[in-house]
Design goal:
about 250 residues; 8 helices
């Protein structure tokens, strides 16, 4: 028939669809997201309360599917909020830092440290003057200042001894020298097969072989209470709910 061998074509079709021949397709019952019995009882109680007829199974399926989609949407929003919270905008060239709180806090800490040192120096000067005084009639306050001056001198001597002991211990241990990566091993020729240079070593690490190829691990996003509160504040149905106000009290 027009140069077509029907037996060959039939054999070719049978060989192509051999995997599907003899198989039977059947539908699988969809598993409901919510447990049906408690849901059915709760909805029937609400229907009786408002004078309505009992809800059918289609209503149960619709409510279960709507709940699943709602929770899925909330989960996706929480993941987006957590990703935005963890994102470092400092490295993005499209953003410019206008206020650096950490630098301001460091400046305040340095000012506090300078003020503390100044007060300590003043107190130390007062104590040293009291310790050097040679008055015969000394009041109890003067004696207390002399005692504090002696204690301060002892603490300074102890700190100096501790510092000298640490320096002596470090000198006895000696400086630790790191072995160079490109240093040739004994009996090997530089650049030969017995030696791997730094560049080739890094190249071997950066290009994994087919046997040691690893699958990319999924990134886990951690959601905290602040993310949930932010989501509740943005949702129109939840921003005035009791759940949000109770969450602020935790």
């Amino acid at each position: 028939m027009a140069g077509v061998n029907l037996s060959e074509e039939s054999a070719r079709i049978m060989a192509t669809n051999a995997d599907f021949i003899g198989t039977q397709m059947r539908s699988i019952k969809e598993e409901k997201f919510l447990i049906q019995d408690p849901l059915h009882d709760h909805i029937n109680r609400l229907c009786q309360k408002h004078g309505l007829q009992n809800a059918s199974s289609e209503v149960m399926d619709l409510i279960s599917l709507a709940t699943q989609e709602r929770l899925k949407l909330l989960t996706e929003k929480l993941c987006t909020i957590a990703a935005h919270r963890m994102e470092a905008y400092r490295n993005d060239s499209r953003f410019e830092v206008t206020t650096d709180i950490k630098t301001q806090l460091k400046v305040f800490e340095q000012l506090d440290s300078l003020e503390r040192k100044r007060r300590e120096e003043q107190e130390r000067e007062i104590l040293m003057r009291a310790a050097k005084s040679r008055s015969k009639q000394e009041d109890p306050e003067q004696l207390k200042l002399k005692q504090r001056a002696k204690e301060m001198q002892q603490m300074e001597l102890e700190q100096m001894r501790q510092k000298e002991a640490n320096l002596t211990a470090l000198a006895a241990i000696g400086s630790r020298k790191k072995r160079k990566v490109d240093s040739p091993t004994p009996g090997s020729v530089p650049g030969g097969p017995g030696q791997a240079t730094g560049s080739s070593f890094l190249t071997n690490l950066s290009t994994p072989s087919s046997t040691s190829r690893r699958r990319p691990m999924p990134r886990i996003k951690r959601v905290n209470l602040r993310d949930v509160l932010f989501l509740l504040e943005q949702e129109r149905e939840m921003k005035k709910s009791q759940l949000l106000f109770k969450s602020f009290l935790k």
